[in-house]
Amino acid sequence: MQSLILTLIPALGLAGYVGLGVVVALRGQNNRATKAFMLYLLMMALWSLSALLLRVDSARTIVWWRLMSLMAIGFLVPLLAFVRAFLGMERPRWVLGVAVAAYLLIVVPLNLQTQAVSSIAGAEGGLIQYQLGPMVILIGVYWFSLFFTIVGYWVVGYRRTSDLVQRNRIRYPLLGLVVVLLGLLVNAIPKWGAYPFDHAGNLINAALLTYTIARYQLLDLTVVLRRGLAGGLILLVVGFIYLFSLIVAQALVSAVWPGILIVVIVLASLVMIAAPNLFETAQGAVDRLFFRARYDARRMLRELSAATVTLQPLDELATMLLTRINETMTVSHSAFFVRDEPDGPLQLLAQVGYDPPLPSLSLRPDHPLIEHLSRREQVLSTAEIPRLFIFRSLWAVEVADLERLQAQVYVGVPDESGVLGVFVLGPMRGQATYSQEDYHVLATLANQTAVAIANARLYREARQQAEELRRANEELKQLDRMKDEFIHTISHELRTPITFLRGYVEALLADMLGPLNEQQRQALQTVAERTESVVALVNDVITLTKNADAIVERRPVDVGAVASACVASAQPLAAKSGIDLTIDCAPGLPLVDGDAQRLGQVFDNLIGNAIKFSPNGGAIAVQIEARNDRVVVAVHDQGIGIPADQLERIWERFYQVDQGSTRRFGGSGLGLAIVKRIVEAHGGRVWVESTLGKGSTFFFSLPAIKRPNHTG
Question: What is the dihedral of CA 674, 676, 682, 685, to 10 degrees?
């Protein structure tokens, strides 16, 4: 029973840490804190796994003991990294580096020897008996230094925040760390060392971490990252390979310093394999110290790579590239040719460093230089030109142009059809010459430039299209203004003769020019009605062509009174059409700042439309109420309704729902456009709701005049 319990405790700890690792890997974020926490969970799981194997595999007791010791000491390193990243306190930066270096160079070698633990053996009941070595004090100093450093970070973070949730995120992991410490301290007592108090502390720590993650969101678990599990698996494999390397080193070499040397070499190899970015960083540091030109070239490529993917004019981009090349590679002068048309020549686009400046030059599409760069080599040195047969076909003027360029290297910018552009680079200053590595850098830059040219052309096309759209929009606005001015002028010109015509018709109807018989009177009455229709149409057109300020004369207006007057004047027409026209005006309506005559025109148009498009009679209701400092009007009818796809277009000038409606119901199509124009001139809004075959409801709202707030 005792053996089962001693085996079960580390097994439960292992299950807890593995479960936490899977959850964090599947749903954790790919940031520094999460990566460090994953490594911490992995080392705690390996600690529990080695403790489990220590009790079930007695033949390899020393192996599992050393793995357990390494994990029991080393888990503090990723925990330190996690705490610093989680709390946002990553300075001083050397703390973590010193911790890692001391672990790899001191703790690991000592653990491989008998300096930390001189003897270990299994005992009855699954217990473990061991004897501490002379160097355990050094390892203890390292462990407690890391432990109290982590505790210090936790305490500082706890004191800095007043958020209870954040404090709980700190409190429970700190408590778990203290429990682990207590377990290790108890195990250091010879009398109790055989019992797995440290593993019990691990189990409690796993439970506290689980509680903190679930209850207080120690880590953000909202984003699923599939790479987390793969990264954890890779880390586990590398860890076992590293452990195996240490064991092999211990078995092959018994001396301390050769063993340490082998461990360091194996570790460095693993780091370079598993962390290529770290190798790139080290390579960059070496280049910066000893190979400055190479370092500057690499930095130039990074900077230009970022610049070439931006949208900017091509000539500016080319000048920037040439300037940067001249500065980095100490080139005396440079130029850039580019092809504008697919089968056209390459034109000189930019030049830097030429004195005097180059004239306008071009390279024909079948120029030998273009043919060579597109079909053979991307980089061509002028020293090779004399031995290339293709250059013997150059014309005399082309030979003079190449001599004028004073080039030492030509670099082609490739595209699908051949060469899109050419960099022309003069000699380097001093005695320096172009190397193969320089050629590689220039070829890489040329490939990036191809992408930049495509982006620059997209940018140019976008700007051209935007300019064309702007011009077209200006032309449309100008045409619209001319149309409005024309309509306004014609309307005014029509108003004068129509006014004379209406005056003479009214005089005839009043018998001022002699008596009329009944037939003559009816004919003139028809002429008078049609004349009034033309006058109304002219007035509507003039209203639509005026600006908002010109059609509204503002003063306090009672919308209810205006609506009541309009309803009263429309009652005869409604009764003639068999329509019940009613008005419901809420009491105590606020006034609006507006034009009573224009608002009356709105009511007349809406009520007139409701009557006109209710051929089967029914009811029309006008409702007025106050809502949130606005006066809202609704005109309901039970007419033919409006199709849903035409609800937005009915406000357009001269628009009719369909030609059938135009012929059946008549009208100019200006009424609703005028309604919208007048309402918006009052700072209001107009809209409609309609069901085809059941009727429509037209709404408009106007801002109310705020009433003074009398208090006292």
Answer: 170
